[in-house]
Fold this protein.
Amino acid sequence: MYKLQNKLEWGELATFIPNKRLPVYNWFYYKEGFSRNLVMNLIKMFRIKKGLVLDPFCGVGTTNLACRERGFDSIGFEISPLALFAAKVKTRDYNIVKLKETLKIFKKIKFRKSDRSWIPSNVRRYFNTHTLDDILLFKNIIEEMDDNITKDFFRLGLISSATRCSYMYKDGSVVKRRKHPVPPFRKFYHHRMKRMIKDLEKLETKKCETFITRGDARKLKLANETIDFVITSPPYLNKIEYTKIYNIEEFLFFKPPKKRGVRSYIGMREGDDIVNAYFSDMTNVLSELYRVCREGAKLALVVGNGCFPTKVVESDILLSELAEKTGFKVKKIYVLNKRWCTRKRTEKVGRLRESLLVFEK
Ligand SMILES: C[S@@+](CC[C@H](N)C(=O)[O-])C[C@H]1O[C@@H](n2cnc3c(N)ncnc32)[C@H](O)[C@@H]1O
């Protein structure tokens, strides 16, 4: 039996909300993300002074960006092309003069109609026609640019501006259409790019190596015993269909991914099957982490329990047991948040915990 300790004062830090006001961290709103200050607290808790930090589920790169602020080398793997893209763009060095010059050129671009024929009506319905034309115009101009770093920077700003100037409304795991007044796209985009450039001047990072790439946490492309610290948050059992809520952005700005690699976040099966698939995936993740960690490595995992119509699955306890079976020592389980698991939105099924698991190899 594990002794659970409350650390509810860190509750909000387990969400993306505090990042919404932070330069660079807020370049792409990611509901599944955690906050910069959670990572900073963990850096303090682990007394990290040097060493290689890994986030095998790096999302939009919160762990890696915080490591850059402190000057620690870090590695991130992510399966979603959109999150991966945001993570990479947020963790690069830029030539600010070049960005400013590009923005000046952007200001002079005249409106033109774009080819919308490749966009199906179920995507078009989220945009005002004029706005969509302008988004596509900028998308094409950006695609023709020759410097990839500048290109990606303007593309990330375009993606989040397009979302903000659309009728998309993300309600939990579904995208709904809500026709409401939207900001004028050009003005909004220009303003956003200006702010992103300013952010680069505001956020101080130190010299270090950041390596972020597409990868599967169940099969890490890393050599044995190379990692000193892991700071991460895996997908939560039965929580969000990550693939669905960014479908529109992925369709407009990326080629749709060929295969859905991760059973752990795809609620593709019913009842116990989801649970089994999740824990079998996480067993692989834990043994991979064990393989790549050095002796004495410290790990922090933020996880949520699973909410089902008839039961709560205590992922924090079950993952700790699995970690122990893998060879890790379970040092602490801190409870960061307590919520209700409900059926049909109102009927209470049980208490759900969101916890921080601390392991050591
Ligand atoms: C809870 S989120 C982590 C977010 C991150 N902490 C941040 O602040 O952005 C979990 C992430 O894991 C990714 N993911 C799911 N399965 C994966 C896998 N097998 N390998 C790598 N990443 C995966 C999801 O796309 C999602 O971005």
Observations:
- The mean pLDDT is 92.
- Residues 90 and 359 are 28 Å apart (CA to CA).
- The radius of gyration is 21 Å.
- The longest helix spans residues 271-292.
